[in-house]
Amino acid sequence: MQAQIQVLLIAAGGGVTGGSNTGPNMEVTKLLVFSREEKVEGFIMAFRLFLKMKMREVMVEEQIQWVLSYIQGELADVWKENILEDLVSARVEFESAGEFLLELKKKFKRGDEKSVKVAELRRIKQEGKTMKEFVQEFHRVARDSEYNKRTLIEEFKKGMNKTIRRKLMEAERSPMSIE
């Protein structure tokens, strides 16, 4: 999903040639189908960008129906059918596609974000990244993890390249922050 968002961002900010690749005519990457297993935040971000770039003039109801066409999979299909019935019977009405996407997020956002963050922190590795890149990525992943400072430092050290980690262990004073 990150690659998909990057392509959309690049398309929005550059690559305009002769006016034919702007507004609704702008070329964008193919959007992915959403199912319960996918990360809802990435799906919503990609579709928000797409709606702003390509469907700004389209009625809200059509935007919602278009987004619904990309929602598939067991629980997602049941939710989609219920929303469609509610829309047709006017039991629910959305002022904007953004309001609809917020409803989608509420329904499918993982309830256990904290454990997802913890798992991400344990998997993150420096590998070929510079230390600056690794620190930035670590900060992004650590946000909302609710780990205390000491635990974050330990997870950070585990993700560092072995050579750098070894030198830190040999140092007289142990680091007190990630910076």
Which residues sit in consecutive blocks of at least 5 with pLDDT less than 50?
Answer: 14-19
Number of helices: 9
What's the SSE pattern?
A: HHHHHHHHH
For the sheet with most strands, the description reads: none
What count of structural domains? 2
Concise structural overview:
With 179 residues, the protein is mainly α. The chain has helices spanning 2-13, 40-54, 60-68, 74-88, 97-108, 113-123, 131-142, 149-159, 162-170.
Characterization of this structure:
By secondary structure, the chain is mainly alpha-helical. The protein folds into two domains: 107 residues, no CATH class; 58 residues, no CATH class. Helix content is 59%, strand content 0%. The two termini are 29 Å apart.
